[in-house]
Every structure is written in structure tokens, then in C-alpha cells.
């Protein structure tokens, strides 16, 4: 709660080109909270360096992620949009919360297990304590709701445990947040391996549809999507590829699975894949157009980053100071 208003908080890592998973599971839903909630949406660049990044790419993607937030309908006058490393309270509070998080809890995080398997040459401490920094992001703003995809639910649950633990020792410090998942599109799977989540850092570009892919590329990728030897478009166990395409189609068109099955009765997978590709490309076209316009004005993006960081710092400072006082840190100001 912030000045009698409920708070929504979320973030996206500029760790790769953003995918339709990031769009459907997270960003597209952010703007729906702007009326009822005080919203903070962050470009979480400090999280991104838990995996090695090329500095020029990280810099470019930080601008791009902010531009995409705006292109997806986030008005910077109604939402606080900012970059994580511009507000040092995130890492200050993360250290404190590290001392309230158990080794065993972090060891159980699925994303840590997945990422350490994928980056076995760089299993750094930041990768391990990533969820603590995420808890800090959320708790600094006294957040009520966290709109995320299913893959991040476990981290928000850990954040709740950390907040409850801290509140038990030092009452009334943090609001305990709830994760909120989109009704459709909360987990979009890889087009090449439909039992695996679609990820922006996937090395196989054909497994992933990026928000900024052009129409031909989008259609080509859906045409190549792995399906099965059946020919009937229906949602069923064992049909992971088709289930995923139906989920994407449902998320872009609002059609239910029953309606989709009826629409493609007697038609093959080819027609269905084409329709999914077209629905996706048509929905993304206006986002891509607005993105281009925002990216052409770097000065405007930098001004927004600055304004967002000032707004976020104001709130973050208050929570950090409250926490420091409760812990017994001496404050001389
Ligand atoms: N496939 C997905 N389906 C639905 N939602 C998804 N999200 C990510 N992938 C999917 C949601 O997007 C938001 C931002 O994600 P993130 O940048 O914080 O990192 P992530 O969850 O690790 O996403 P990626 O794309 O898999 O990134 P990399 O490859 O860098 O690890 C979150 O709300 C997430 O749930």
C-alpha cells in the first residue's frame, strides 16, 4: 500500500530480445493495473548480469525494454517506469534480506537449477541469490500484487516467506505481496521443444518468437513449430506442441479452446499454424510501430528513465530507512 493506494510491481530483464512469452505472460497485462494501482515497472538490469552480457547489447536492450513498456501501453505519467541500477536501494535492501533468506530455500529454486545447468561454467553467487534481489525489488515498494508469468511464481512465493519472516521479527515492516498470473498466456512454451518454456536467451532463434520479429519471420517460425503426427487440432494430453499453439492463439484472439477446435475441424495443422502466425503478427504490428517511434527519441527515453528513478527512489528510500531503523542501524542525516 502506498499513500492509500494498492501497489503493483513487476520487472523484465534486458537479457535478450523480448519474446511473446514475456509479452503475453507479463508486459501486455501491466497496463490493466494502472487505473486501480500505483504501478512500478522496472527494467531489471542488475538481474541480467547474473548471466554474462555483452555490455553494448545490455545497454541497447535496456533502452529497448523501456521503449517496449511504453509501446505496450504503459503511460509514464500513470506508471513509474525505471531502470533497476538507477535506484541503489534495491541492492542495499537485497543485502539485508540475504541475511533473512535460508541457503536451503535458495537451493530449491527451479530457475537456479535450470540456469546453473545451462551456465555450468558460471554458477556465480548472484545467480544463486537472484530471488533475494527480486524480493528486495518487490518489498521496497510495499507491493500488493506482482503480475508475472508462471515461471516467476516460485520466486514471489519465496519473497512472501522472506517478508513474513522479517515481519515476525520486526512487525509491520513489509506488505506481503500476491503473485498474479494472466488468465491466458502465463506460460508459453518453446516452438522447438514444447515441454520447455520459451525464453529470450534460447540459442535457437526458431524456438522463440520475438515481439519485434517481422510478419514473415513470425509466420515462418510458427510454420516450423514442432507438433505431432496426429492431424486434428484439439487440446489433449501429450499434444504439447498443439496445446502451446492453441494457448498462443487463445491469448491473441480471445477464442476458447472449444471455439478453436471447431474453427479448424477438418483442416490440417498447416492452416492452423498459418492462422496462429497471422493473429500473432497482427497483434504485434501496432506495438512494433510505437516501439520504432519511441526508440527514435533516445533523449525522451533518458528523460523518462531519470523521472522514473526519481519517483522510485523516493518510495524505496522510505522503506529502506524504515528497515534500517528496525534493525538498529545508526542513521545520521
Ligand atoms: N515463456 C513465458 N511465458 C509466459 N511468461 C513468461 N515470462 C518469461 N517467459 C515466459 C515472464 O516474463 C516476465 C519477465 O521475465 P524475466 O525477464 O524476468 O525473466 P525470465 O522469467 O527468466 O524470462 P526469460 O524470457 O526466460 O529470460 P531469460 O532467458 O533471460 O531467463 C516474467 O514475469 C516472466 O514470468
Description of the structure:
- This protein has 333 residues and is mainly alpha-helical.
- The protein has 2 domains: 6-181 and 298-327, 3-Layer(aba) Sandwich (Rossmann fold), CATH 3.40.50.620; 205-292, Tyrosyl-Transfer RNA Synthetase.
- The chain contains 13 helices and 5 strands.
- The radius of gyration is 21 Å and the shape is globular.
- The model has no long low-confidence stretch (mean pLDDT 96).
- Bound molecules: adenosine-5'-tetraphosphate.
Return the structural class: mainly alpha
- The amount of helix comes to 40-55%
User: What is the CATH C-level name of the largest domain?
Assistant: Alpha Beta
Q: Overall mean pLDDT score?
A: 96
Quote the distance from N terminus to C terminus: 26 Å
CATH topology of the largest domain: Rossmann fold
CATH architecture of the largest domain: 3-Layer(aba) Sandwich
Radius of gyration: 21 Å
Task: Count every helix, treating DSSP H or I runs of 4 or more residues as helices.
Answer: 13
The global form is globular
Most strands sheet:
3 strands, parallel
Number of separate structural domains:
2
The order of strands across the largest sheet is 1-2-3
Give the name of the CATH superfamily of the largest domain: HUPs
SSE sequence, one letter per element: EHEHHEHHHHEHEHHHHH
Strand proportion, as a percent range, falls in: 5-15%
Nutshell version of this structure?
The chain has 333 residues and is mostly helical. The site of adenosine-5'-tetraphosphate has 22 residues, from α1.
Task: List the topology elements.
Elements lengths: L5 E7 L7 H11 L6 E7 L1 H4 L6 H17 L7 E5 L5 H10 L4 H5 L2 H9 L6 H15 L5 E3 L5 H17 L8 E3 L34 H9 L16 H14 L3 H7 L5 H27 L2 H30 L6
Parallel strand pairs: 1-2, 2-3, 4-5
The site of adenosine-5'-tetraphosphate has 22 residues, from helix 1.
Amino acid at each position: 500500500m502506498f499513500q492509500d493506494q494498492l501497489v503493483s510491481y513487476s520487472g523484465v530483464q534486458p537479457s535478450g530480445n523480448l519474446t511473446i512469452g514475456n509479452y503475453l505472460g507479463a508486459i501486455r497485462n501491466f497496463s490493466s493495473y494502472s487505473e486501480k494501482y500505483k504501478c512500478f515497472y522496472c527494467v531489471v538490469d542488475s538481474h541480467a548480469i547474473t548471466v554474462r552480457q555483452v555490455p553494448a547489447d545490455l545497454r541497447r536492450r535496456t533502452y529497448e525494454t523501456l521503449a517496449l513498456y511504453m509501446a505496450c501501453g504503459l503511460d509514464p505519467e500513470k506508471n513509474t517506469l525505471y531502470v533497476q541500477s538507477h535506484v541503489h536501494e534495491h541492492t542495499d535492501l537485497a543485502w539485508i534480506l540475504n541475511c533473512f533468506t535460508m541457503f536451503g530455500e535458495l537451493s530449491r529454486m527451479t530457475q537456479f537449477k535450470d540456469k546453473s545447468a545451462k551456465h555450468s561454467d558460471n554458477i556465480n553467487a548472484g545467480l544463486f541469490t537472484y530471488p533475494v534481489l527480486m524480493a528486495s525489488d518487490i518489498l521496497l515498494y510495499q507491493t500488493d500484487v506482482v503480475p508475472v508469468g508462471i515461471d516467476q511464481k516460485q520466486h514471489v512465493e519465496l519473497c512472501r516467506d522472506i517478508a513474513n519472516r522479517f515481519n515476525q521479527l520486526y512487525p509491520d515492516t513489509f506488505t506481503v505481496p500476491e503473485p498474479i498470473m494472466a488468465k491466458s498466456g502465463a506460460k508459453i512454451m518453446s516452438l522447438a521443444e514444447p515441454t520447455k518454456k520459451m525464453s529470450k536467451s534460447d540459442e535457437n532463434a526458431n524456438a522463440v518468437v520475438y515481439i519485434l520479429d517481422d510478419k514473415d519471420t513470425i509466420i515462418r517460425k510458427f510454420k516450423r513449430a514442432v507438433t505431432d503426427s496426429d492431424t486434428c487440432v484439439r487440446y489433449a494430453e501429450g499434444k504439447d506442441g498443439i496445446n502451446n499453439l492453441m494457448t498462443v492463439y487463445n491469448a491473441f484472439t480471445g477464442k476458447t479452446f472449444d471455439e478453436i477446435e471447431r474453427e479448424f475441424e477438418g483442416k490440417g495443422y498447416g492452416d492452423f499454424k498459418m492462422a496462429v502466425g497471422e493473429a500473432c503478427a497482427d497483434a504485434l504490428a501496432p506495438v512494433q510501430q510505437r516501439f520504432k517511434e519511441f526508440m527514435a527519441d533516445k533523449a525522451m527515453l533518458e528523460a523518462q528513465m531519470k523521472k522514473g528513478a526519481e519517483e522510485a527512489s523516493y518510495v524505496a528510500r522510505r522503506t529502506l530507512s524504515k528497515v534500517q531503523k528496525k534493525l538498529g542501524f545508526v542513521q545520521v542525516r
